[in-house]
What does this fold into?
Amino acid sequence: MGKMWIPLLIWMLHLMILTEGQDNTRRSSSVSRVCPAGCVSCSAPNGCLSCKPRLFFHLELDGMRQRGSCLSSCPQGHYGRRFPHISTCTRCKDECASCFSEHFCTHCHPGHFLFGGKCGDSCPIGFTANTVLCECTVSECCTGCEVCVRRNMCVRCRADLYFLHGQCHLTCPKGFEPDVQLMQCTPQVHCEVGGWTNWGPCIRRSSARPYRRGQETRDRQVLKSPSVSGDPCPPVSQIRKCVNRKRPKSPSGLYKVVKEPPYRLFVDMAEVFNFSKCRDVFI
It folds into this structure.
């Protein structure tokens, strides 16, 4: 009778193992539905809390909440750091698009150029800032150029050459003149003048005679002064001869200066001295 219980006991033990295995399967499947792949533990609001060995723990912002994930390699803009109990992803410096470590960039954001593992806003002497690759490349400057940003764009010429529009010149081209202090070619400036003013009054030397030849002038302003080798200014003042006279303006004895052609002088003298015969002759 005792031997009859042995098969029953074995069957019950097998049933218990089978039931336990089914419970473990249900629990593991339940965990796999909640946690992403690679997570050892997780929570619904925060994602992964810990990772399997050799995976990197990465935190990313999800709205106002941070969610964790377990990755085999860190995303762009981050580099991996390994510690005894955890491996994490750390963000690169702001100017680095990607990096190998905190102090070694591998790619730069636009506007910065990679040189020696660092991203800067300019390149050292002898290197050209390549805006396509975002890195400093070896310069091949044109003849006479000491520093250039590309083949035909110089920024500093040899000491005995003049700089103009990214090129180095032994003598300045037409329309430009050398500035020996700055060692560069500057545009020539030609003189510009304005229009003539009206002729001024006829001025004569003091004399007791009622008429006298004099001079009248006019001028114009210089609007733009010429440079050293620019076209000089034309005359800005003119003088011409004129004739003036004095005759009674009123019984009070005041006289007025009048400009008249020379042939009228004899007529005016006849009026002043009351030479009636002369008036008859010239009028």
Observations:
- The longest strand covers residues 237-248.
- The chain has three helices and 23 strands.
